[in-house]
Amino acid sequence: MTPKEYEHAVLERFRTLFPLPRFTVKHNVRLSGSKTKARRQVDVCVFEAGNPKPVLLIEAKRHKRPIDSVHAGATIALVRDVGEVPAVMVATAGFSRAARNYLAAESIGHLTITLTEAQGLRWIPLVEEACAVDHEFREVSGHLVEALRTGDADPFLDETGLPYEEWLAVFAAGLSRFRDTTARVLKELAHDHFDDGVRFNALQLLDDADQLTAAEVVTLLADERDPDTSDLLHGFLE
Is residue 130 scored above 90 in pLDDT? Predict the structure, then answer.
């Protein structure tokens, strides 16, 4: 994940925390520096509807090591220059004690969003292209798309808690970007999921995506005990 991709992932976390329509969260905002008299770049800004001045500044740092006092100082200098606006520094690997103390002394918050978290957050817009995702489920949906990217069926074998429309949107996003690994996950669900409805829906998605062979259908039929799902599989062979 590049630093820019990490910034976009951080933006999605703050879009969850500050939702529309009351707030707008923007990436790569330029603000005037009161001391430097220059345009200063801020990674992410939160704006309240109707107010051109941001209500929160966010600086995101994709670093392998904890943020030290030097990097904290750069963010502090930026915040001082653009004015009295609340700010948060976000990093992948946390903060040293000195950095935490320095930021706290300047009333700047700090937040850790790991690369693992960011990998899921970055897929939220892809899911939202397929469905108007309920705000409560937007981050869960992003993390499930990341599981599809890696071909990990485990998060889907338990109860995800996703409503049906969001569940479909996650798989639509996966099939659009990670067809092979998503199909592999769907095949695991079709064979192993405890819920008859999930197996049925997984099979329909696989058939719509032309990802089932006749041999695979025969194998699934041998183990299927749900009448409706068995009828669906028989229909694939006709």
Answer: no
For residues 48 and 11, membership in a common domain is answered with: yes
Average pLDDT on 54-59 reads: 98
Determine the pLDDT at residue 160: 80
Question: What is the rounded CA–CA span in Å between residue 59 and residue 81?
Answer: 14
Q: Which domain holds residue 180?
A: 124-237
Q: How many domains does the chain have?
A: 2
Q: Which position has the token pair 């704006």?
A: 47
Same domain (yes/no): 109, 132 = no
Tokens 């068995």 appear where? 230
Q: Are 115 and 92 in contact (CB under 8 A)?
A: yes
Domain boundary residue, one of 61, 92, 117: 117
Tokens of 227: 């009448």
Alpha-carbon distance 141 to 127, whole Å?
A: 7
Nearest to 118 by CA among 92, 151, 144: 92
**End-of-domain residue from the set 117, 135, 166:** 117
Same domain, 111 and 146: no
Task: Check pLDDT > 90 for residue 172.
Answer: yes
pTM for the whole structure: 0.90
CB 148 within 8 A of CB 181: yes
3-state secondary structure of 162: coil
pLDDT of residue 146: 97
CATH assignment at residue 24: 3.40.1350.10
Higher-scoring residue by pLDDT: 28, 84: 28
Model confidence at 205, in pLDDT bands (50, 70, 90)?
A: very high
> DSSP class of residue 106?
T
Q: Are 123 and 105 in contact (CB under 8 A)?
A: no
